[in-house]
Specification:
Strand order of the largest sheet: 5-2-1-6-7-9-8
Number of helices: 14
Number of strands: 9
Helix content: 40-55%
Structural class: alpha/beta
Radius of gyration: 21 Å
Largest sheet: 7 strands, mixed
Order of helices and strands: HHHHHEHEHHEEEHEHEHHEHHE
Strand content: 15-25%
């Protein structure tokens, strides 16, 4: 079958599925797992044939309300503070470093806070979201700058110009849009970075192994990566009151068609990241942020979590109940790994 015809038939099938399911979707979804699966396959198909593009939630990111400025400044400061906390740096240790953030989104707020604390060079790479330069974002950068001390403002201004238009100063800051990390190594500079960081990005890569290999090429010996990784289902099932691990019961062939093109979570569990760091020869630490049966984020995240202290015994009961239905890749994953729904991964490259 010709590729064009195959795409057309896939699109027609996806649209028919979505149109057919629309009036029935919400009431049926609460009872029928396979209806959720089928609808997500239909939506994912639209990405596959190019009728949808970009990132989940992108329109809301690119058109934020002015009323959200203060909240966005606070969120940016919290992300920055958490990167430092889990890497084990204080603000003074940022001086002279080179850092790269993966998936910064519509603005370079976090890298600019590194610059303000004296980082020698900062970069951001986002495959889906271009750097925004509108009125809202100028106001955002100005508010972020206003939170800084005098010396930090000088450093901030060395990395970005806000008038007459928003421009990063290339000698100290870089933003790359629309490329994979593996295709940007030469532009970024191999072996140059002291820190590579991301916030809720890694889980959207269906196979993140190439991304980690690319980071290895960019980090200098002794360099560190810190990634906040969401191991939940992005609400695919849980918003319809299914158990937290219901998405792990979907066979791999079906889940790939649900998630690979649209950026839904890859389902990889904490053991995957732990084992990958061993294969790369990195020393790693993992801090837990979310757990099965706990309705709030653990702040600060913990390396060790214990029953009754951090989660109820009922959480283990939830795992026992769902285990017989788990898809093949998850049947041998231990309870202590299945219970984890979010992490910070901190890993150090050997050397120095």
């Amino acid at each position: 079958m010709a590729p064009t015809l195959k795409k057309l038939l896939t699109l027609i099938a996806a649209l028919a599925l979505i149109l057919f399911s629309y009036p029935l979707w919400k009431p049926l979804a609460k009872r029928q797992k396979w209806f959720v699966v089928a609808t997500n396959i239909g939506m994912d198909s639209l990405w596959r044939v190019g009728w949808k593009s970009g990132q989940i939630g992108q329109p809301a990111v690119l058109s934020p309300p002015e009323s959200g400025l203060a909240r966005e400044v606070t969120r940016t400061q919290e992300i920055y503070a958490n990167y430092l906390r889990y890497v084990g740096w204080d603000n003074q240790q940022v001086a002279g470093k080179r850092m790269l953030e993966l998936g910064p989104g519509a603005h370079m707020g976090v890298p600019l806070l590194f610059a303000a604390d004296g980082a020698h060079y900062v970069a951001g790479l986002d495959k889906f979201v271009p750097l925004q330069t509108g009125t809202y974002f100028r106001s955002f950068y100005m508010r972020l700058r206003d939170t800084l001390g005098t010396a930090e403002k000088v450093n901030f201004d060395r990395a970005i110009r806000l008038e007459p238009k928003i421009e990063l100063r290339p000698e100290q800051a870089l933003h790359i849009y629309g490329k994979e990390l593996s295709d940007s190594i030469d532009e970024l500079g191999p072996g140059r970075y002291d820190l590579i960081a991301s916030n809720a990005v890694i889980e959207e890569m269906y196979d993140p192994a190439p991304l980690f290999k690319a980071q290895d090429r960019l980090l200098r010996p002794g360099g560190v990566m810190v990634h906040k990784i969401d191991l939940r289902d992005y609400g695919m099932f849980t918003k319809y009151d299914f158990p937290a691990l219901e998405f792990l019961t979907v066979p791999e062939w079906a889940y790939r068609r649900m998630a690979e093109a649209s950026g839904q979570p890859n389902r990889l569990r904490v053991n995957y990241y732990r084992d990958l760091m061993v294969r790369l020869g990195y020393t790693s630490r993992i801090y837990v942020t979310w757990l099965v049966g706990v309705d709030h984020e653990i702040v600060p995240a913990k390396e060790q979590v214990r029953p009754e202290m951090d989660y109820p015994n009922a959480s283990l009961g939830m795992i026992r109940d769902i285990r017989p239905r788990l898809a093949g890749p998850f049947r041998n994953v231990g309870d202590s790994d299945l219970i984890v729904l979010g992490i910070y991964l901190v890993a150090r490259k050997p050397g120095e």
